[in-house]
UniProtKB/TrEMBL annotation:
Gene Ontology process terms (BP): proteolysis
Domain (Peptidase S53) ranges: 208-564
One GO CC term on file: extracellular region
Binding site for Ca(2+): 524-525, 543, 545
Alphabetically ordered keywords of this record: Calcium, Glycoprotein, Hydrolase, Metal-binding, Protease, Secreted, Serine protease, Signal, Virulence, Zymogen
Organism encoding this protein: Phellinidium pouzarii
Protein name as it appears in the record: tripeptidyl-peptidase II
Protease as UniProt keyword: yes
Positions of the catalytic residues: 284 (charge relay system), 288 (charge relay system), 481 (charge relay system)
InterPro entries noted in UniProt: Peptidase_S8/S53_dom_sf, S53_propep, Sedolisin_dom, Tripeptidyl-peptidase_I
Length: 564
């Protein structure tokens, strides 16, 4: 158990930053056979280059926390809705207790970067990192973009730290150029730059998707929310900034019943910001903010801008934003994120640690929604492949993955990423739904995916021809990045009704969604597929499928399903 970790041993390990390594017996901890597709090793990293490294300690009682997460998230459980406080979540990891009890300065060269103290950070030159971890940190270049990163294909840790040190990062995880790019398939593809929002505001969901047609399609109410404690968080990465002037134009033309002065709060971390020059407006940030404020009428919305500082490589921002929210006494009740990457580009250990962070935030009562990706069965974006490519974080079982549909008579959008994780097994809440789908699928695509993996997406919403305001003009965009804020807005409005009735917000959604009541409250999508890897991908069918999940929202039915 982590509580038995000899802190003096760990402190001695950290002390190797400024001295020669003191351990002789090393054991291989993580490795990958080769760099991901598109990356080429160009040479050794300069010995004097400083690396910002993170150490993840083995979590103490994640099985216990997982049990509690399902208890507070499963309807009819005696603990349903009794979400945990920051202190209660912390109690499931003895790292918290150990950090509090440690003598001052014991690990002064490493700083804690998570509320539980299970992530530590420190800096070290390449030459020392190679010694400490028996590694070969090298420079890798992505051929298509020219982006460079410093990684090693393998590293070792002292035998004494086995079972206590989960991973060192960044080491064997690579950040692909599309890792944090918006899932927007075809911006500007059907509208000339001279057309403005007004020119398309009266279109139906069969031509251009707007708040009005979504309200009609899904029964989303236009009445203002009333509960200030119910908040909706929108994640922002890679210098994607939400523009207030574009939001005002969007509301004037597409939600004229709302005040055009309605705006969002701003939180920043890792040096994040939100400049308002028109040319700095972000296509993704505008989309996410406009379709949360524009649909979740009156729900307080916060744009959380994550900068580039202190991220220490791939998925640094993903981890930092969750630790940032875990450190708050009242994190948002809903969080929507429209970014991700292919699962295989990261290590299993890192995926597990980030997924555990989502579990902790879900136990606090936050509904976490992620866009599933835009590459069909080929991953986060379209790419060549021989086997189907699952995406992350959608493969994590402790969040809700959102796929995409298109048209008024809804069908699966071909871009909708979906499939089965190679890292996470099928969770109990979806075992029946996944089993039924696989039985019906038979031998189709046999051998191209993990039949024992967590299936995704869980749900879906409109994801093509979605109208936004961008740089003062109307622009239609595509992608599951449209679907996630749309579905998140529905959940935020349900939470408003629940809180007004004296009940708890929904929190982690999946146990409810996969219940008979939750499934029956969704519009089942039974046509379309998500082609890729020279196949037709998976077909959408009756019931759950790895294209549109359980289906799209029906607000009235969902309201009844949650007991209102």
């Amino acid at each position: 158990m982590l509580s038995k970790l000899n802190f003096l041993v760990f402190a001695s390990f950290i002390a190797a930053v400024s001295a020669n390594p003191v351990f002789r017996d090393m054991v291989l901890h993580e490795q990958r056979e080769k760099a991901p597709n598109g990356f080429v090793k160009v040479g050794a990293a300069p010995a004097e280059l400083m690396l910002s490294l993170r150490l993840a300690l083995v979590n103490d009682d994640m099985d216990g926390l997982e049990e509690v997460l399902y208890a507070v998230s499963t309807p009819n459980n005696a603990r349903y809705g009794q979400h945990l406080t920051k202190e209660e979540v912390c109690s499931y990891d003895s790292t918290c207790r150990r950090i509090r009890q440690a003598k001052p300065g014991l690990c002064h060269q490493a700083k804690s970067i998570s509320p539980a103290g299970d992530w530590l950070a420190f800096s070290v030159p390449v030459s020392k990192a190679n010694e400490m971890f028996d590694a070969d940190f090298s420079i890798f270049t992505h051929k298509e973009t020219g982006n460079e990163s410093v990684r090693t294909l393998a590293y070792s840790i002292p035998v004494e730290l086995q079972g206590h040190l989960e991973l060192v990062h960044p080491t064997v995880t690579f950040e692909t150029p599309s890792a944090h790019l918006p899932f927007v398939a075809s911006p500007l593809r059907s509208v000339s730059r001279s057309q403005n929002v007004t020119a398309l505001s009266d279109a139906s969901c069969d031509y251009q998707v707007t708040p009005a047609c979504l309200q009609d399609l899904y029964g989303i109410p236009t009445t203002l929310a009333t509960e200030s404690s119910n908040t909706l968080g929108v994640s922002g990465f890679i210098n994607q900034f939400a523009n207030e002037a574009d939001l005002e134009l969007f509301l004037e033309e597409l939600r004229s019943d709302l005040s055009s002065s309605t705006t969002f709060a701003l939180q920043t971390l890792d040096g994040g910001s939100d400049p308002q020059d028109e040319y700095q407006a972000g296509l993704e940030a505008n989309l996410d903010v406009q379709y949360t404020i524009g649909l979740a009428s009156g729900v307080p919305t916060t744009f959380i801008s994550v900068g580039q500082e202190n991220q220490d490589g791939a998925l640094g921002g993903f981890l930092d934003i969750i630790n940032f929210l875990l450190n708050e006494s009242n994190p948002p009740t809903v969080l929507t994120t429209s970014y991700g990457q292919d699962e295989y580009t990261m290590s299993r250990a890192l995926a597990r640690q980030v997924c555990n962070a989502y579990m902790q935030l879900g136990a606090r009562g936050t509904s976490i929604l992620f866009a599933s990706g835009d590459g069909g069965v080929s991953g986060s974006q379209r790419s060549s492949c021989s086997d189907f490519v699952p995406t992350f974080p959608s493969g994590c079982p402790f969040l809700t993955s959102v796929g995409a549909t298109t048209g008024v008579s809804e069908t699966a959008a071909g871009l909708s990423a979906g499939g089965f994780s190679n890292y996470f097994k099928t969770p109990k809440y979806q075992s029946s739904a996944v089993g039924s789908y696989l039985d019906a699928l038979g031998s189709t695509n046999s051998g191209m995916f993990n039949t024992n993996g967590r299936g995704f997406p869980d749900v879906a919403a409109q994801g093509q021809n979605v109208m936004i305001a961008y740089e003062g003009e109307g622009t239609p965009v595509d992608g599951t990045s449209c679907a996630s804020p749309i579905f998140a807005s529905v959940i935020a409005l349900l939470n408003d009704r629940l809180i007004a009735a004296g009940k708890s917000p929904l929190g982690f959604l999946n146990p409810f969604l996969y219940s008979s009541e939750g499934t029956a409250a969704l519009n089942d999508i039974t046509s379309g597929s998500n082609p890729g890897c020279d196949t037709n991908g998976f077909p959408a069918t009756a019931g759950w499928d790895p294209v549109t999940g359980l289906g799209t929202p029906n607000f009235a039915s969902l309201l009844s399903a949650v007991g209102l």
